[in-house]
Amino acid sequence: MNGALLVGGATSDAGKSMIVTGLCRALARQGIRVAPFKAQNMSNNSAITPDGGEIGRAQALQAFACGLDPSTRFNPVLLKPGSDRRSHVVVRGRPDGQIGAADYATRRAQLLGVVTDELASLRADFDIVICEGAGSIAEINLRGSDIANMGLAQAGAMPVIVVSDIDRGGSLAHLFGTTAVLGADDQRLVAGYLINKFRGDPGLLAPGLEQLRELTGRPTYGVVPYASGIWIDAEDSLSVAVGRRVGPPAADGRPVRLSVAAIRLPRISNSTDVEALACEPGVDVAWVDDAGAVAAADIAILPGTRATVSDLAWLRSRGIDAALRGRAAAGRPVIGICGGFQMLGRTIDDDVESGGGRVEGLGLLDMTIRFDADKITKQVTGHADVRDGRVAVRGYEIHHGRVDGCTEDAWIRQGDNLIAEGAVRGAVRGTHWHGLLENNAFRRDLLITLAEQAGKPAFEVAPDTDVAAIRTGQVDLIADLLTAHVDLDALLDIIGRGAGASVPVITHMLTG
C-alpha cells in the first residue's frame, strides 16, 4: 500500500501519542507492516536507539507497538527545551546545536528536507506509516514554518484525522474551529475526527457528532472511551502534573505500603523512570514539588533534568534541598537519576549546559561532576550485587555530565573491567542510567532495602512483577480499545485513497 496517515490534535495532550500507539499495534496485529513517525517532537522524555541515537520516548513505545526496534528514522527532529525560549536540537539522533523561536524559520528548509526524506524512506519500506502531529494543527501563527502538522501533511500528500480530548470539554467546538481556521488547501486534507477519553452514554453524544458532520462534511471515525488503566510513557510536561499519581489507579490493599515522592523539577526529563516503581503492588508514586511532601515520603526520587544547575537552584528556593539533607542524615532513602544524581555531589562544574561554571551541589555524595561538550547517548549493560548474589542489569545514558572524582561505593558495575557506575552512601544512591529500575530482579531487591531504610521492614515485595510484560499489556489494552471503538476499515480506506478526498471547505470563519 505504501500509504500514510497524520494523526493531528485539536489541542496539545489530546492523546495523539496514545492513538498512534494503538493504531500501530492494531494494524501490526493484522499483519500489516506499519511504522510510526513524528517529524518533530518537543519533549525531554527521550529514548536511545541501538546505535546510540536519541528519539522521543513516545516514538520508542510506538516502535515497540509495531514490533520494531527504536530508530532515529521514526523521529528525525527532536527539540529538548532548555529554557522557555530556546531548545536543544537533535537531528537524526545526534545533537545539532540550539534553536530559538525567533530563528526557527532559518532552519525550516533544512529540517523540512530531513523529515520529508525520512518519511519517504519509511513509506518505501512499510505498508503504512502512522504519523503523529505536534501540539495542535490549528496553530496558524506557526503555519509558515510548520514541518510537523499540516506542513508535513502537504509535503507528504497524506490525509489527516484530528483527535480531541472530550474529557476537557468543548470537543465539538475544538474540532469545528480547528478545521475552520485552516486554509482551504489544508482543510482539504482533513478527512475526519476521533473523540478521545469519552465518559458516559454514547447516545447522548451521537446527535452532536451528526451535527458536526453536517457543519464540516466530515465523519467521526471513533469515540474512544476513557480508560483509567492507561498510564505509561507520559509524552510532555502537561502529563507530568504535580499531585498526579503515577501508575495503575487502584491500590491492592496490602497492609504495608511504600510511598514515593518523585520531585517534579521544572525541566524534568525522562520522567518515565519512576513508572517501574509504580508497577509494584504496594508502592504509591506521586509527583510533588514541596519540601513537606519530600520529607514525609518513604522514598524520595530526584529524576533527570535538562537543566541541572537551574533546577538545583529551584530546589533550594523551595527548601527541598534541606528536606533531602534531612532524609540523608536520618538514613531515609534518596535516589538520584541522571541530572538528579549529579545534584547529589559536592560540586557541579558546568560551562556547557547552563554556562554557570562551578556551583555547589547538595553534598550528599562525595563526588564532583564536570560537564563535557560531548554528549553521551548509549544503551548500557552491567551487573549489580544483590542479597542473593549478582544480577544483570541494562539501561541507557543521555547526559553531558561526567563523574570527575568519587570516593563512594559503586551502585552498579559495567562491563568485564568492572567500571563503577553510580554511587551509594548509606540510604543515598544515584546513577546516570535511565531505565535501571525496569530490571525486575534488581528492583525487587532494591525495594526490600529501601523499605528497611524507611522503617518498614514488614513490606513484602511482589515476586513476579514484570515491567516489560506490563508495558506490553498497556500497548495491547490501547489497541483493544481502538479496535473496539474506531472504524479501522474506514481509516484503512482513507489511507489507501490518500490525500485529496472530496471534502468541503468551511467558509463560516474564513469569509466573515
From TrEMBL:
All copies of domain CobB/CobQ-like glutamine amidotransferase, residue ranges: 260-441
Key words, A-Z: Cobalamin biosynthesis, Glutamine amidotransferase
- Pathway where this protein functions: Cofactor biosynthesis; adenosylcobalamin biosynthesis
Entry annotation: catalytic residues: C338, H434
From which domain of life does this come? Bacteria
A GO MF annotation of the entry reads: catalytic activity
Taken from the record, one Pfam family name reads CbiA
KW Ribosomal protein (keyword) present: no
What InterPro entries does the database record attribute to this sequence? Answer: Class_I_gatase-like, CobQ/CobB/MinD/ParA_Nub-bd_dom, CobQ_GATase1, CobQ_N, CobQ_synth, GATase_3, P-loop_NTPase
Query: Which biological process terms from the Gene Ontology are attached to this UniProt entry?
Result: cobalamin biosynthetic process
Identify the residues that the record assigns to the CobQ/CobB/MinD/ParA nucleotide binding domain, covering every copy: 7-231
Q: In UniProt terms, what function does this protein have?
A: Catalyzes amidations at positions B, D, E, and G on adenosylcobyrinic A,C-diamide. NH(2) groups are provided by glutamine, and one molecule of ATP is hydrogenolyzed for each amidation.
Q: Which family does it belong to?
A: Belongs to the CobB/CobQ family. CobQ subfamily.
Protein name stated in the entry: Cobyric acid synthase
Phylogenetic placement of the source organism: Bacteria, Bacillati, Actinomycetota, Actinomycetes, Mycobacteriales
